[in-house]
Amino acid sequence: MTAPTIELNADAGESFGRWTLGDDEALFRYITTANIACGYHAGDPATMRAALIRARTAGVAAGAHPGYPDLLGFGRRALPSTDADVVDYILYQVGALAGIAATEDVTLTHVKPHGALMGRICRSPELATAVARSLQSVLPGVPLMFAPTAAMRAVTAEGLPVIPENAADLEFDQDGVNIVEPVPRAKDPEAVADRALDMARGSVRTVDGAVIPMPVRSVCVHGDRPNAVAIAAAVRRRLESAGFVLSACNSSAHKQAP
Amino acid sequence: MTAPTIELNADAGESFGRWTLGDDEALFRYITTANIACGYHAGDPATMRAALIRARTAGVAAGAHPGYPDLLGFGRRALPSTDADVVDYILYQVGALAGIAATEDVTLTHVKPHGALMGRICRSPELATAVARSLQSVLPGVPLMFAPTAAMRAVTAEGLPVIPENAADLEFDQDGVNIVEPVPRAKDPEAVADRALDMARGSVRTVDGAVIPMPVRSVCVHGDRPNAVAIAAAVRRRLESAGFVLSACNSSAHKQAP
Amino acid sequence: MTAPTIELNADAGESFGRWTLGDDEALFRYITTANIACGYHAGDPATMRAALIRARTAGVAAGAHPGYPDLLGFGRRALPSTDADVVDYILYQVGALAGIAATEDVTLTHVKPHGALMGRICRSPELATAVARSLQSVLPGVPLMFAPTAAMRAVTAEGLPVIPENAADLEFDQDGVNIVEPVPRAKDPEAVADRALDMARGSVRTVDGAVIPMPVRSVCVHGDRPNAVAIAAAVRRRLESAGFVLSACNSSAHKQAP
Amino acid sequence: MTAPTIELNADAGESFGRWTLGDDEALFRYITTANIACGYHAGDPATMRAALIRARTAGVAAGAHPGYPDLLGFGRRALPSTDADVVDYILYQVGALAGIAATEDVTLTHVKPHGALMGRICRSPELATAVARSLQSVLPGVPLMFAPTAAMRAVTAEGLPVIPENAADLEFDQDGVNIVEPVPRAKDPEAVADRALDMARGSVRTVDGAVIPMPVRSVCVHGDRPNAVAIAAAVRRRLESAGFVLSACNSSAHKQAP
Which CATH superfamily is domain A5-253 in? Predict the structure, then answer.
């Protein structure tokens, strides 16, 4: 009998120029998968390269984490834009990261939208499908990582690859939509670990106390939370104690340098 | 006996959001090859896609035109940065354009640095080699287009692909270095055509009146010159009258949509 | 009996770096009042100075035209932000323009919000009042120019100075709200002049054909419309033919260089 | 007999959006004077307002700290630009901060250029004079704070106000020019305090061991150094132990809220 597997992902590479955010070095000891910012909401070419090298060194799967073009708002503001604009914002950033990754012999494993862009994609089957389809031209076979929603069912129905995921460090409303904080605050690592385990087993408790399905294959902890490293450590410990093997959903795509 | 060939390239996609620069539609009737801005000195995702579609429709070879990250200075200011930074700025932009191009079934044919970044690469054999080598990881076989210089000889000595080019619409100093204008002004199309023909034949007249070798395979006219279209038309006419066949150096890489 | 007066305003200084938008030089022959972009949606320090000098030379009243921080979207996208953020965005830009204006001996005559920021202020009495009040700390006595709305009545009730205005080159819905175009197109100058005259007389015809009150003291033509100069000329001609004297509402604040 | 006075200044408000840099709250317990970033190299409207409030609350004099428009390079890259551009970059930022300060009843006490912009002004008597003169139009009587150099002598000769200052936490070359670090690292607080005391007494030891005049009235510690607070505390302690009274050079301009 095979042990169940689960992926543990976190946003990474979210520094910018002189400003540092998150402790990727420490975080990468616990997670399986890094979502690397691509310059629109955070990240810059040097930061992106550093994150890719760090991921390769730590054996962490590396994917793209594109956001809205809004450094000031860190991609957490819903920028009015057409679906076509959103597709192009994502392709631009995914391509940019892939360009740098190619010189580090890192193959990108997934694409996870960031912040307000993630929220929009989760709410729109049309947009989610357009994004997932366009990604196949740039990175064939690479899945779009987002929440298990009607939008995801639409993408799956088209035969396009996805990784269902959600954030273990956020609360959920009665519709199963996570409640975004303007700025992440420190949280109790064990409470997050509780929720992560629930999610790994396919459900989540909402703010009303109801237990609803949440069929994810990947759980997220936010790398810019002040105690992100302690949270990631607690989540990993809890999942392993419960018998889960932590591994990236698409780790096969992650080439190690020879 | 085969007719001699020459490439005619121009910068394109240099609009940004609400602002339009150049008349790509008209220009593409005369040039063989477009260097498409990638968002750092000009261009944005929607503009990049429009330029790629226009190039494909017009049968014009499409390459990347990366610049310094300086919208305000249009990439014409030499931004102090390390060689490593420059390589990453270029990979980021080339990857970004390639990401959008992949969804339009356009294969990028070349990479031509823009403005002050071009000047820097022409002056540094080490940087030129580093850039040309890193490009092979992202776009195998795709040449770096820049001026025939000691830097280019260094790149060629490493077996890396190049396209020697220079601008027909600029003056040249006694060392064969073109004299950059802060903002391009209208110029006499026939005078530019004269110089283009000289360059197609392998030489150029400097501001001192000396004739020096300029062994290019591609000549450039700047798309943001007010009368760029008239200049491109005059250059094309002159080159064809003199028996040259105008074609992109790397047109084979340019796939048409099926 | 005194002739009735009306102000004719237009956005100006909306170039950015290498990119030119609008023909301020020509436009300033017809308008009384320029709203100068301040760097967030358009404009840069050199462009702002040039617009201020041009306004002074042409005897045109110069005010600030602050927008959302979104160059890519030209301030025409509603950026989610708090009221406090909006107040600070405006103070930042107004102060910046005033800083440059001080060295040109130009006193700013008004502040007119741009694009999506204008729309938001017209819809919120609280925000309109907060903006108008905060402006009094920076530029005492200087009015906030926006549409005659419930928001404006709230500002006026607080004893804060305003200039009621609206755009003569836009259509109006049944609620008297102008219908913004994503990108302004050329329009029939005489049709705009018809509407300008109606507005100068205190009413406007909606898209439904109803005539509703529109008690403005200033009418606007958009400087980035392709035929903006022809429109401004036609509007001026029509207003003057109908007996209006064109003059800036707050022209007294506009000092001429000694 | 009056105790000698000295000013202790630090850069502040150098966060940007989601990114925090420096601990202004703690730093303001030790310094007399804050140089507040104005949005070009760091800072944004909300951060600027927060820094102004913090300065007022702590009784710290608040001035402007304008830099080159280069968020990615944190204003530490020498951006090629004309003197006229530099003047406008500074006026724009000073005006922007003054605009927000006016609503907090804070009067700006000085202007200190940042990073590469500071270096350039220290090397150019013409530019330093042009900047200092233009400031008088915006903030009459407000001094330009920079290093005691030939450029400063030129400004003083014009009768324009200055505050001679230099950094106690940097090394000095044989010409008395401080040696800028790309990114500030932690330093021994007592060693910095040694140098601060030397400088308060009018001299500094160069990297060659020579002691040269350094007639400053203000010493700086960089707020983005990892142990900036410990350094500021040590410097203050040392200066006070040696009998200096710490006070802002232009504290009279700093109004407290009534």
Answer: Glycoside hydrolase/deacetylase (3.20.20.370)
